[in-house]
Amino acid sequence: MPSREDTTSRACTSLVVSLRIDRAKARESGSSADGRALRGRSVPELARGYSFPSVLIGRKPVSPAALLTDVHCGVGFAKKQSYASRASTKIFVSFCLDRAKARERASFACEWHCGTQLYCKDSIMHTKLIQIDSANIDRNAIKEAADLIAAGELVAFPTETVYGLGADALSPEASKKIYAAKGRPSDNPLIVHISKFEDLVAIAREVPPQAKKLADAFWPGPLTMIVWKNEKVPCETTGGMDTVAVRMPNHPVALRLIEESGCLIAAPSANTSGKPSPTEASHVALDMDGRIPMILDGGPVGIGIESTIIDLSEKTPMILRPGYITKEMLEETLGGEVCIDPGIIAADSMKKPKAPGMKYKHYAPKADLVLVEGKTDRVVAEINRLAAKKQEAGLRVGVIATDETRDRYQADLVFSIGAREDEDAIARHLYKLLREFDDQNVDAIYSESFATPRIGQAIMNRLLKAAGHQVIQI
After folding, report:
1. How many other CB atoms are found less than 10 A from the CB of residue 12?
2. Which domains does the chain show, CATH number per domain?
3. Whether residue 296 has pLDDT greater than 90
4. Stated pTM of the model
Protein backbone atom coordinates (compact mmCIF):
# COMPACT_ATOMS: atom_id res chain seq x y z
CA MET A 1 0.00 0.00 0.00
CA PRO A 2 1.16 3.58 -0.48
CA SER A 3 3.13 5.06 2.39
CA ARG A 4 1.01 7.39 4.52
CA GLU A 5 2.03 10.57 6.28
CA ASP A 6 2.45 8.79 9.62
CA THR A 7 5.02 6.40 8.14
CA THR A 8 7.36 9.18 7.00
CA SER A 9 9.32 11.82 8.86
CA ARG A 10 11.73 14.58 8.05
CA ALA A 11 14.59 12.19 8.81
CA CYS A 12 13.62 8.98 7.10
CA THR A 13 11.12 7.22 4.86
CA SER A 14 9.79 3.72 5.38
CA LEU A 15 10.33 1.75 2.17
CA VAL A 16 9.21 -1.62 0.89
CA VAL A 17 11.46 -3.12 -1.77
CA SER A 18 11.31 -6.45 -3.53
CA LEU A 19 14.21 -8.83 -3.93
CA ARG A 20 14.16 -11.73 -6.37
CA ILE A 21 16.41 -14.54 -5.16
CA ASP A 22 17.93 -16.92 -7.69
CA ARG A 23 17.26 -20.40 -6.35
CA ALA A 24 20.25 -22.01 -8.03
CA LYS A 25 22.62 -19.43 -6.51
CA ALA A 26 20.96 -19.88 -3.16
CA ARG A 27 21.53 -23.63 -3.27
CA GLU A 28 25.17 -23.11 -4.25
CA SER A 29 25.68 -20.96 -1.16
CA GLY A 30 23.85 -23.45 1.06
CA SER A 31 21.02 -21.02 1.76
CA SER A 32 17.27 -21.45 1.52
CA ALA A 33 15.38 -19.73 -1.28
CA ASP A 34 11.97 -20.48 0.20
CA GLY A 35 10.08 -17.27 0.89
CA ARG A 36 8.55 -18.56 4.11
CA ALA A 37 11.98 -19.53 5.50
CA LEU A 38 13.25 -16.02 4.70
CA ARG A 39 10.62 -14.21 6.74
CA GLY A 40 12.18 -12.27 9.61
CA ARG A 41 15.66 -12.27 8.11
CA SER A 42 17.32 -8.88 8.32
CA VAL A 43 18.33 -7.07 5.16
CA PRO A 44 22.07 -7.22 6.02
CA GLU A 45 21.73 -10.99 6.46
CA LEU A 46 20.07 -11.28 3.07
CA ALA A 47 22.74 -9.10 1.44
CA ARG A 48 25.49 -11.31 2.87
CA GLY A 49 23.78 -14.57 2.11
CA TYR A 50 22.82 -14.05 -1.51
CA SER A 51 24.52 -12.82 -4.64
CA PHE A 52 22.63 -9.66 -5.53
CA PRO A 53 23.85 -7.59 -8.48
CA SER A 54 25.05 -4.03 -8.29
CA VAL A 55 22.38 -1.34 -8.48
CA LEU A 56 22.70 2.20 -9.75
CA ILE A 57 22.64 5.11 -7.34
CA GLY A 58 22.61 8.13 -9.60
CA ARG A 59 25.07 7.05 -12.27
CA LYS A 60 27.36 5.05 -9.96
CA PRO A 61 27.08 1.26 -9.56
CA VAL A 62 26.79 0.40 -5.85
CA SER A 63 26.42 -3.01 -4.26
CA PRO A 64 23.31 -3.61 -2.16
CA ALA A 65 25.54 -4.18 0.86
CA ALA A 66 27.03 -0.70 0.40
CA LEU A 67 23.57 0.75 -0.05
CA LEU A 68 22.49 -0.76 3.24
CA THR A 69 25.66 0.36 5.04
CA ASP A 70 25.57 3.95 3.81
CA VAL A 71 21.86 4.66 3.53
CA HIS A 72 20.01 2.15 5.69
CA CYS A 73 18.62 3.47 8.96
CA GLY A 74 17.44 0.79 11.36
CA VAL A 75 16.89 -2.87 10.47
CA GLY A 76 14.73 -4.23 7.67
CA PHE A 77 13.00 -7.57 7.68
CA ALA A 78 11.84 -9.98 5.03
CA LYS A 79 8.07 -9.67 5.30
CA LYS A 80 6.51 -12.26 3.03
CA GLN A 81 6.99 -14.30 -0.09
CA SER A 82 5.20 -12.60 -2.99
CA TYR A 83 6.20 -14.85 -5.85
CA ALA A 84 7.82 -18.22 -6.32
CA SER A 85 8.76 -20.24 -9.36
CA ARG A 86 11.18 -23.02 -10.10
CA ALA A 87 13.87 -20.45 -10.83
CA SER A 88 13.44 -17.76 -8.23
CA THR A 89 11.68 -16.47 -5.14
CA LYS A 90 10.56 -12.87 -4.77
CA ILE A 91 10.14 -11.40 -1.28
CA PHE A 92 9.16 -8.04 0.12
CA VAL A 93 11.58 -6.30 2.47
CA SER A 94 10.86 -3.19 4.51
CA PHE A 95 13.44 -0.79 5.88
CA CYS A 96 14.00 2.89 6.61
CA LEU A 97 15.84 5.19 4.24
CA ASP A 98 17.82 8.10 5.67
CA ARG A 99 16.61 11.10 3.66
CA ALA A 100 19.74 13.20 4.10
CA LYS A 101 21.98 10.41 2.81
CA ALA A 102 19.55 9.67 0.00
CA ARG A 103 19.68 13.32 -1.07
CA GLU A 104 23.47 13.13 -1.13
CA ARG A 105 23.21 10.25 -3.60
CA ALA A 106 20.29 11.87 -5.50
CA SER A 107 18.31 8.65 -5.83
CA PHE A 108 17.66 5.18 -4.51
CA ALA A 109 17.11 1.73 -6.02
CA CYS A 110 13.71 0.30 -5.18
CA GLU A 111 13.87 -3.09 -6.87
CA TRP A 112 16.67 -5.59 -7.44
CA HIS A 113 16.79 -8.69 -9.61
CA CYS A 114 19.51 -11.33 -9.69
CA GLY A 115 21.52 -10.38 -12.74
CA THR A 116 19.27 -7.52 -13.88
CA GLN A 117 18.37 -4.09 -12.55
CA LEU A 118 14.60 -3.77 -12.95
CA TYR A 119 13.72 -0.30 -11.75
CA CYS A 120 15.58 2.70 -10.38
CA LYS A 121 13.80 5.80 -9.07
CA ASP A 122 15.27 9.25 -9.61
CA SER A 123 13.89 10.61 -6.36
CA ILE A 124 11.92 9.60 -3.29
CA MET A 125 8.23 9.64 -4.22
CA HIS A 126 5.34 9.49 -1.81
CA THR A 127 2.16 8.09 -3.37
CA LYS A 128 -0.88 9.80 -1.93
CA LEU A 129 -4.09 7.77 -1.81
CA ILE A 130 -7.27 9.85 -1.77
CA GLN A 131 -10.71 8.30 -1.36
CA ILE A 132 -13.25 10.09 -3.52
CA ASP A 133 -17.03 9.68 -3.61
CA SER A 134 -18.27 9.47 -7.21
CA ALA A 135 -21.68 10.75 -6.16
CA ASN A 136 -20.28 13.72 -4.22
CA ILE A 137 -16.86 14.59 -5.63
CA ASP A 138 -14.62 16.55 -3.28
CA ARG A 139 -13.64 19.77 -5.08
CA ASN A 140 -10.27 20.08 -3.33
CA ALA A 141 -9.31 16.46 -4.04
CA ILE A 142 -10.12 16.69 -7.74
CA LYS A 143 -8.30 20.03 -8.02
CA GLU A 144 -5.17 18.57 -6.41
CA ALA A 145 -5.22 15.67 -8.88
CA ALA A 146 -5.97 17.96 -11.82
CA ASP A 147 -3.09 20.26 -10.90
CA LEU A 148 -0.73 17.27 -11.00
CA ILE A 149 -1.95 16.32 -14.49
CA ALA A 150 -1.56 19.91 -15.69
CA ALA A 151 1.98 19.95 -14.29
CA GLY A 152 2.95 16.88 -16.32
CA GLU A 153 2.66 14.33 -13.51
CA LEU A 154 0.80 11.01 -13.26
CA VAL A 155 -2.47 10.28 -11.45
CA ALA A 156 -4.32 6.95 -11.27
CA PHE A 157 -8.09 7.34 -11.43
CA PRO A 158 -11.23 5.18 -11.76
CA THR A 159 -13.19 4.68 -14.97
CA GLU A 160 -16.17 2.43 -15.62
CA THR A 161 -13.89 -0.23 -17.15
CA VAL A 162 -10.63 -0.41 -15.13
CA TYR A 163 -8.43 2.10 -13.29
CA GLY A 164 -6.40 4.31 -15.61
CA LEU A 165 -2.92 5.82 -15.23
CA GLY A 166 -3.33 9.34 -16.53
CA ALA A 167 -1.06 12.10 -17.85
CA ASP A 168 -1.34 15.04 -20.25
CA ALA A 169 -1.88 13.38 -23.65
CA LEU A 170 -0.41 16.31 -25.58
CA SER A 171 2.85 16.39 -23.60
CA PRO A 172 5.58 14.05 -24.92
CA GLU A 173 7.38 14.06 -21.57
CA ALA A 174 4.22 13.24 -19.63
CA SER A 175 3.48 10.30 -21.93
CA LYS A 176 7.04 9.04 -21.46
CA LYS A 177 6.40 8.99 -17.70
CA ILE A 178 3.48 6.61 -18.26
CA TYR A 179 5.68 4.17 -20.18
CA ALA A 180 8.38 4.40 -17.52
CA ALA A 181 6.03 3.85 -14.57
CA LYS A 182 4.34 0.86 -16.20
CA GLY A 183 7.45 -0.63 -17.82
CA ARG A 184 5.38 -0.52 -21.02
CA PRO A 185 6.88 -1.02 -24.51
CA SER A 186 7.11 2.38 -26.21
CA ASP A 187 5.39 1.14 -29.40
CA ASN A 188 2.23 0.21 -27.47
CA PRO A 189 -0.12 3.18 -28.02
CA LEU A 190 -2.01 4.99 -25.27
CA ILE A 191 -5.73 5.83 -25.28
CA VAL A 192 -6.58 9.54 -25.07
CA HIS A 193 -9.50 10.23 -22.73
CA ILE A 194 -11.74 13.21 -23.50
CA SER A 195 -14.82 14.83 -21.92
CA LYS A 196 -16.63 16.12 -25.04
CA PHE A 197 -16.84 15.22 -28.72
CA GLU A 198 -15.19 18.50 -29.74
CA ASP A 199 -11.97 17.21 -28.15
CA LEU A 200 -11.89 14.43 -30.75
CA VAL A 201 -12.40 16.95 -33.53
CA ALA A 202 -9.50 19.01 -32.16
CA ILE A 203 -6.92 16.20 -32.39
CA ALA A 204 -8.12 14.29 -35.48
CA ARG A 205 -6.80 14.98 -38.97
CA GLU A 206 -10.31 14.20 -40.14
CA VAL A 207 -13.37 12.87 -38.35
CA PRO A 208 -14.99 9.96 -40.20
CA PRO A 209 -18.79 10.10 -40.38
CA GLN A 210 -19.07 6.88 -38.38
CA ALA A 211 -17.42 8.57 -35.39
CA LYS A 212 -20.36 10.90 -34.69
CA LYS A 213 -22.87 8.06 -34.96
CA LEU A 214 -20.89 5.90 -32.54
CA ALA A 215 -20.31 8.80 -30.14
CA ASP A 216 -24.02 9.60 -30.05
CA ALA A 217 -24.81 5.97 -29.30
CA PHE A 218 -22.04 4.93 -26.90
CA TRP A 219 -20.26 7.98 -25.42
CA PRO A 220 -19.63 8.45 -22.64
CA GLY A 221 -18.97 4.73 -22.40
CA PRO A 222 -16.62 1.79 -22.96
CA LEU A 223 -15.84 2.39 -26.64
CA THR A 224 -12.49 3.58 -28.05
CA MET A 225 -12.28 4.88 -31.64
CA ILE A 226 -9.09 5.00 -33.70
CA VAL A 227 -8.82 7.90 -36.15
CA TRP A 228 -6.02 9.63 -38.06
CA LYS A 229 -4.27 12.08 -35.70
CA ASN A 230 -3.15 15.64 -36.41
CA GLU A 231 0.11 17.35 -35.38
CA LYS A 232 -1.19 18.22 -31.90
CA VAL A 233 -0.83 14.61 -30.73
CA PRO A 234 2.80 13.61 -30.08
CA CYS A 235 4.14 10.30 -31.35
CA GLU A 236 5.08 9.46 -27.75
CA THR A 237 1.35 9.15 -27.01
CA THR A 238 0.50 7.07 -30.09
CA GLY A 239 3.45 4.68 -29.96
CA GLY A 240 4.82 6.18 -33.18
CA MET A 241 1.59 5.62 -35.10
CA ASP A 242 -0.14 8.20 -37.31
CA THR A 243 -3.45 7.27 -35.70
CA VAL A 244 -4.76 8.02 -32.23
CA ALA A 245 -7.10 6.02 -29.98
CA VAL A 246 -9.78 8.16 -28.26
CA ARG A 247 -12.59 7.51 -25.82
CA MET A 248 -14.94 9.38 -23.47
CA PRO A 249 -15.17 7.49 -20.15
CA ASN A 250 -18.50 7.07 -18.39
CA HIS A 251 -17.33 7.85 -14.87
CA PRO A 252 -17.94 11.12 -13.00
CA VAL A 253 -14.46 11.19 -11.43
CA ALA A 254 -12.70 10.63 -14.77
CA LEU A 255 -14.78 13.28 -16.54
CA ARG A 256 -14.25 15.85 -13.76
CA LEU A 257 -10.51 15.17 -13.77
CA ILE A 258 -10.30 15.80 -17.53
CA GLU A 259 -12.35 18.98 -17.30
CA GLU A 260 -10.61 20.38 -14.21
CA SER A 261 -7.11 19.69 -15.55
CA GLY A 262 -7.77 21.41 -18.86
CA CYS A 263 -5.94 18.51 -20.53
CA LEU A 264 -6.79 15.55 -22.66
CA ILE A 265 -5.62 12.60 -20.58
CA ALA A 266 -3.65 9.67 -21.99
CA ALA A 267 -4.41 6.68 -19.78
CA PRO A 268 -3.63 2.99 -20.13
CA SER A 269 -4.60 0.66 -17.29
CA ALA A 270 -2.86 1.58 -14.02
CA ASN A 271 -0.85 -1.62 -13.58
CA THR A 272 2.70 -2.64 -14.36
CA SER A 273 2.89 -3.88 -17.94
CA GLY A 274 1.67 -7.42 -18.50
CA LYS A 275 -0.11 -7.83 -15.15
CA PRO A 276 -3.88 -8.06 -14.66
CA SER A 277 -5.60 -4.70 -15.02
CA PRO A 278 -6.66 -3.04 -11.73
CA THR A 279 -10.34 -2.96 -10.86
CA GLU A 280 -9.81 -1.52 -7.37
CA ALA A 281 -7.50 1.19 -6.03
CA SER A 282 -5.71 -1.41 -3.87
CA HIS A 283 -4.60 -3.18 -7.07
CA VAL A 284 -3.14 0.10 -8.34
CA ALA A 285 -1.32 0.63 -5.06
CA LEU A 286 0.35 -2.79 -5.25
CA ASP A 287 1.83 -1.95 -8.65
CA MET A 288 2.30 1.83 -8.54
CA ASP A 289 3.19 2.72 -4.96
CA GLY A 290 6.33 4.87 -5.09
CA ARG A 291 6.11 5.30 -8.85
CA ILE A 292 3.33 7.90 -9.13
CA PRO A 293 2.30 10.86 -6.96
CA MET A 294 -1.40 10.12 -6.52
CA ILE A 295 -4.15 7.50 -6.68
CA LEU A 296 -7.82 8.53 -6.62
CA ASP A 297 -9.78 5.73 -4.94
CA GLY A 298 -13.31 5.72 -6.36
CA GLY A 299 -14.09 2.18 -5.23
CA PRO A 300 -14.49 -0.93 -7.41
CA VAL A 301 -15.17 -0.35 -11.11
CA GLY A 302 -18.43 -1.35 -12.75
CA ILE A 303 -17.49 -3.31 -15.90
CA GLY A 304 -14.08 -4.82 -15.11
CA ILE A 305 -12.63 -5.26 -18.62
CA GLU A 306 -11.20 -2.65 -20.94
CA SER A 307 -13.14 -0.79 -23.62
CA THR A 308 -13.97 -2.12 -27.07
CA ILE A 309 -11.58 -0.63 -29.66
CA ILE A 310 -12.83 0.03 -33.20
CA ASP A 311 -10.53 1.23 -35.97
CA LEU A 312 -12.17 3.91 -38.13
CA SER A 313 -9.03 4.73 -40.11
CA GLU A 314 -9.73 2.01 -42.69
CA LYS A 315 -12.55 1.71 -45.23
CA THR A 316 -14.34 -1.00 -43.25
CA PRO A 317 -14.49 -0.42 -39.48
CA MET A 318 -12.58 -3.14 -37.61
CA ILE A 319 -12.71 -4.27 -33.98
CA LEU A 320 -9.15 -4.47 -32.66
CA ARG A 321 -10.11 -5.30 -29.07
CA PRO A 322 -13.47 -6.77 -27.99
CA GLY A 323 -15.25 -5.37 -24.98
CA TYR A 324 -18.63 -4.54 -23.50
CA ILE A 325 -19.77 -2.91 -26.77
CA THR A 326 -20.21 -5.87 -29.13
CA LYS A 327 -19.90 -6.31 -32.89
CA GLU A 328 -23.69 -6.60 -33.20
CA MET A 329 -24.23 -3.32 -31.33
CA LEU A 330 -21.72 -1.51 -33.55
CA GLU A 331 -23.20 -2.89 -36.79
CA GLU A 332 -26.72 -1.94 -35.72
CA THR A 333 -25.59 1.63 -35.01
CA LEU A 334 -23.55 2.03 -38.21
CA GLY A 335 -25.99 0.18 -40.45
CA GLY A 336 -23.17 -1.74 -42.12
CA GLU A 337 -20.47 -4.36 -41.73
CA VAL A 338 -17.92 -4.28 -38.92
CA CYS A 339 -15.11 -6.82 -39.23
CA ILE A 340 -13.01 -8.34 -36.45
CA ASP A 341 -9.22 -8.46 -36.38
CA PRO A 342 -8.25 -12.17 -36.56
CA GLY A 343 -5.62 -11.64 -33.85
CA ILE A 344 -8.32 -11.11 -31.21
CA ILE A 345 -8.61 -14.82 -30.51
CA ALA A 346 -5.63 -16.21 -32.44
CA ALA A 347 -2.07 -15.94 -31.18
CA ASP A 348 -0.49 -12.50 -31.53
CA SER A 349 1.23 -11.49 -34.73
CA MET A 350 4.55 -9.68 -34.83
CA LYS A 351 3.16 -6.60 -36.56
CA LYS A 352 3.34 -3.19 -34.91
CA PRO A 353 0.32 -2.87 -32.58
CA LYS A 354 -2.28 -0.33 -33.68
CA ALA A 355 -4.19 -0.51 -30.42
CA PRO A 356 -3.36 -1.40 -26.80
CA GLY A 357 -3.20 -5.12 -26.11
CA MET A 358 -2.71 -6.34 -29.69
CA LYS A 359 0.89 -7.53 -29.57
CA TYR A 360 2.22 -8.09 -26.07
CA LYS A 361 1.26 -10.58 -23.40
CA HIS A 362 -1.31 -8.90 -21.19
CA TYR A 363 -3.35 -9.45 -18.05
CA ALA A 364 -1.09 -12.29 -16.85
CA PRO A 365 -0.89 -13.59 -13.28
CA LYS A 366 2.48 -14.65 -11.91
CA ALA A 367 1.60 -18.35 -12.07
CA ASP A 368 1.31 -20.31 -15.31
CA LEU A 369 -2.30 -20.19 -16.57
CA VAL A 370 -3.84 -22.82 -18.85
CA LEU A 371 -7.39 -22.85 -20.26
CA VAL A 372 -9.29 -26.12 -20.65
CA GLU A 373 -12.13 -26.17 -23.19
CA GLY A 374 -14.78 -28.82 -23.82
CA LYS A 375 -17.93 -30.27 -22.29
CA THR A 376 -18.30 -29.47 -18.61
CA ASP A 377 -17.88 -33.00 -17.17
CA ARG A 378 -14.75 -33.63 -19.23
CA VAL A 379 -13.29 -30.23 -18.36
CA VAL A 380 -13.77 -30.84 -14.64
CA ALA A 381 -12.18 -34.29 -14.87
CA GLU A 382 -9.21 -33.02 -16.89
CA ILE A 383 -8.53 -30.07 -14.58
CA ASN A 384 -8.68 -32.36 -11.54
CA ARG A 385 -6.23 -34.75 -13.24
CA LEU A 386 -3.81 -31.95 -14.13
CA ALA A 387 -4.10 -30.40 -10.67
CA ALA A 388 -3.33 -33.71 -8.96
CA LYS A 389 -0.23 -34.16 -11.11
CA LYS A 390 1.04 -30.68 -10.18
CA GLN A 391 0.30 -31.28 -6.50
CA GLU A 392 2.27 -34.54 -6.57
CA ALA A 393 5.23 -32.46 -7.73
CA GLY A 394 4.82 -30.22 -4.69
CA LEU A 395 3.22 -27.30 -6.52
CA ARG A 396 0.31 -25.20 -5.33
CA VAL A 397 -2.64 -25.19 -7.78
CA GLY A 398 -5.54 -22.81 -8.31
CA VAL A 399 -8.71 -23.27 -10.38
CA ILE A 400 -11.06 -20.68 -11.90
CA ALA A 401 -14.53 -22.25 -11.75
CA THR A 402 -18.14 -21.10 -11.85
CA ASP A 403 -20.81 -21.23 -9.16
CA GLU A 404 -22.11 -24.38 -10.85
CA THR A 405 -18.78 -26.29 -10.80
CA ARG A 406 -16.86 -24.88 -7.82
CA ASP A 407 -17.57 -27.81 -5.49
CA ARG A 408 -16.41 -30.40 -8.06
CA TYR A 409 -12.72 -29.46 -8.04
CA GLN A 410 -9.91 -30.79 -5.86
CA ALA A 411 -7.20 -28.11 -5.83
CA ASP A 412 -5.43 -25.95 -3.27
CA LEU A 413 -7.56 -22.93 -4.20
CA VAL A 414 -10.82 -22.90 -6.14
CA PHE A 415 -12.35 -19.50 -6.93
CA SER A 416 -15.72 -19.03 -8.56
CA ILE A 417 -15.89 -16.26 -11.14
CA GLY A 418 -19.68 -16.18 -10.83
CA ALA A 419 -22.69 -17.91 -12.35
CA ARG A 420 -22.07 -18.97 -15.95
CA GLU A 421 -25.14 -17.15 -17.23
CA ASP A 422 -24.08 -13.89 -15.54
CA GLU A 423 -21.63 -12.52 -18.11
CA ASP A 424 -21.32 -9.15 -16.42
CA ALA A 425 -20.20 -10.78 -13.16
CA ILE A 426 -17.63 -12.94 -14.98
CA ALA A 427 -16.12 -9.86 -16.64
CA ARG A 428 -16.20 -7.86 -13.41
CA HIS A 429 -14.47 -10.58 -11.35
CA LEU A 430 -11.83 -11.79 -13.85
CA TYR A 431 -8.88 -9.52 -13.04
CA LYS A 432 -9.60 -9.52 -9.32
CA LEU A 433 -9.44 -13.34 -9.28
CA LEU A 434 -6.14 -13.39 -11.17
CA ARG A 435 -4.68 -11.00 -8.61
CA GLU A 436 -6.02 -13.08 -5.72
CA PHE A 437 -4.14 -16.08 -7.08
CA ASP A 438 -1.01 -13.90 -7.07
CA ASP A 439 -1.64 -13.04 -3.42
CA GLN A 440 -1.97 -16.75 -2.56
CA ASN A 441 1.31 -17.69 -4.30
CA VAL A 442 -0.03 -20.47 -6.47
CA ASP A 443 2.34 -22.12 -8.96
CA ALA A 444 -0.23 -23.10 -11.61
CA ILE A 445 -3.77 -22.03 -12.53
CA TYR A 446 -6.33 -23.91 -14.62
CA SER A 447 -9.45 -22.20 -15.90
CA GLU A 448 -12.68 -23.18 -17.54
CA SER A 449 -13.59 -21.49 -20.82
CA PHE A 450 -16.22 -18.73 -20.87
CA ALA A 451 -17.43 -18.42 -24.46
CA THR A 452 -20.67 -16.78 -23.37
CA PRO A 453 -23.15 -15.37 -25.93
CA ARG A 454 -22.81 -11.58 -25.51
CA ILE A 455 -19.37 -10.53 -24.20
CA GLY A 456 -17.80 -13.97 -24.12
CA GLN A 457 -15.38 -13.01 -26.90
CA ALA A 458 -14.06 -10.13 -24.78
CA ILE A 459 -13.67 -12.35 -21.73
CA MET A 460 -11.89 -15.07 -23.72
CA ASN A 461 -9.63 -12.50 -25.38
CA ARG A 462 -8.35 -11.46 -21.93
CA LEU A 463 -8.02 -15.03 -20.68
CA LEU A 464 -6.16 -16.18 -23.79
CA LYS A 465 -3.67 -13.34 -23.49
CA ALA A 466 -3.26 -14.00 -19.76
CA ALA A 467 -2.55 -17.65 -20.55
CA GLY A 468 -0.20 -16.87 -23.42
CA HIS A 469 -2.66 -18.79 -25.64
CA GLN A 470 -2.12 -22.05 -23.71
CA VAL A 471 -5.35 -23.98 -24.35
CA ILE A 472 -6.18 -27.65 -23.91
CA GLN A 473 -9.06 -28.87 -26.09
CA ILE A 474 -10.77 -32.04 -24.87
Report:
1. 20
2. 5-121 (no CATH), 128-344 (3.90.870.10), 368-473 (3.40.50.11030)
3. yes
4. 0.74
